[in-house]
Amino acid sequence: MTIQQIVPGSTIGILGGGQLGRMTALAAAELGYACVILTPEPDAPAAQVSALTILADYGDEAALAKFAAAVDVVTLEFENVPAEAVQFLESLGKPVRPGSRVLAVAQDRVAEKDFVRKLGGGTAPYEPVDTLKALIPALERMGRPAVLKTRRMGYDGRGQRILQHRDNPVEAWDAIGGKPAILEGFVKFNREISVIVARGVDGATRAYVPVENRHKDHILSETIAPAPISRHLADQAEALAARIAHALELVGLLAVEMFVTDDGRILVNELAPRPHNSGHWTIDACLVSQFEQLVRAVCGLPLGSPERHADAVMTNLLGNDAYRWPEFIKEPGARLHLYGKSEARPGRKMGHVTRVIPRTDRR
Ligand SMILES: Nc1ncnc2c1ncn2[C@@H]1O[C@H](COP(=O)(O)OP(=O)(O)O)[C@@H](O)[C@H]1O
Ligand SMILES: [Mg+2]
User: Fold this and answer.
1) Atom of ligand 1 nearest to the CA of 159
2) In angstroms, what is the span from residue 8 Cα to ligand 1's centroid?
3) Is residue 278 within 8 Å of 255, Cβ to Cβ?
4) Rounded to an integer, what distance in angstroms lies between the CA atom of residue 50 and that of residue 34?
5) How far apart are CA 212 and CA 232, in angstroms?
6) According to the model, what pLDDT value does residue 149 have?
7) Closest by CA position to 217, among listed 162, 260, 180
8) Protein residue whose Cα sits closest to atom 18 of ligand 1
């Protein structure tokens, strides 16, 4: 198969303007590509480091057409871009990587879990719940504690509620906005891990080592690379991530969030077909970062080595944490990343610090 390469000097379009787009644009620049951002948000972190920004809603077809005309390939940093926008770009003949088929699965928590189950992967027990009326019997079947999440658009714990024994399901239903939802059994996990796998136009895959993720208030707080798990479990997690990427025919990056149970089972929690917060450590501790890997994948270049030259701990700077930058910038072994966001709202991802640690094993 001959692969049409999008060579250095070309332009990559990125849907979404957040920090994931910003770090993708920075990595693209290192390989000689320019980036054009389409985002509805003024002063977006990615716009600050890109050649051109089109400030428009994803539903604005004139803006999408202008965007398509300015770029050679389109990728995304935000998987909730409306499917119609992606289909419209595809109809103009622009490659969108990953494309609308992948998004259809990853935008819907029920479709996502159905997809994983069909491949033989494990998930928490779950049931779609479209109405408040359906929630009550579903909760009886599931038992408590359970987790109620909107099917679509949730992130950083938004759009979800845990239902403990005394909690009122009507309140939980209202709290998530009374939208079509998924009810999940609560997993008593031993730890949370994730695998980021890249898949190229030629179908080749390369995975980063599984990492452990620690959350505070449902927001990622810390990533530990590598995850302190057995070789056997790590191999299983990587193989599962690659299997999902192949089945999706993904071109780009796929982050697979997983729970590890006490009895050593892996349950898939969530799929994200884009760079992922749990992969930020790869900028400082791997030969090729997740962001460069995404650029390579969508441009049809050979994938790079995901090998790490150091272990790492990545800590998110949320809200006011960012004001502690003078401490981090002088800390030996630490690398500070700030996203250029002017307003430090509570829980907002403002930057991160990666502490690199000499490698202790040769996995
Ligand atoms: N079924 C579950 N059982 C136990 N904990 C859960 C469950 N679902 C989510 N969580 C916790 O909430 C966090 C956020 O949920 P997630 O489904 O990843 O949504 P998002 O990251 O999109 O907000 C997870 O990382 C995990 O810590
Ligand atoms: Mg998640």
Assistant:
1) 23
2) 38
3) yes
4) 7
5) 15
6) 97
7) 162
8) 270
- The encoded tokens of residue 4 equal 């049409």
Q: Which of 35, 63, 59 is nearest to 48 (CA)?
A: 35
pLDDT at residue 2, rounded to an integer: 75
Q: How far is the CA of 195 from the centre of ligand 2 (A)?
A: 12
The residue type at 358: P
What is the pLDDT of the chain when averaged over all its residues?
96
Tokens 């719940």 correspond to what residue? Answer: 129
**DSSP code at position 279:** G
Identify whether the C-beta of residue 243 lies closer than 8 Å to the C-beta of residue 188.
Answer: no
Spatial neighbors of 207 by CB under 8 A, at least 6 apart, are 195, 196, 197, 198, 238, 241, 242, 306
Q: Hey, what amino acid is at 18?
A: G
Lining residues, ligand 1, CB within 6 Å: 124, 147, 154-157, 184, 186-187, 192, 215, 218, 257, 269-270
Joined tokens for residue 353: 């610090």
Of the candidates 204, 281, 269, 262, the one whose C-alpha atom is nearest the C-alpha of residue 237 is: 269
pTM reported for the whole predicted model: 0.97
What amino acid occupies position 217?
Answer: D
- Please report the pLDDT score of residue 155 as a whole number: 86
Nearest to 212 by CA among 261, 243, 267, 258: 258
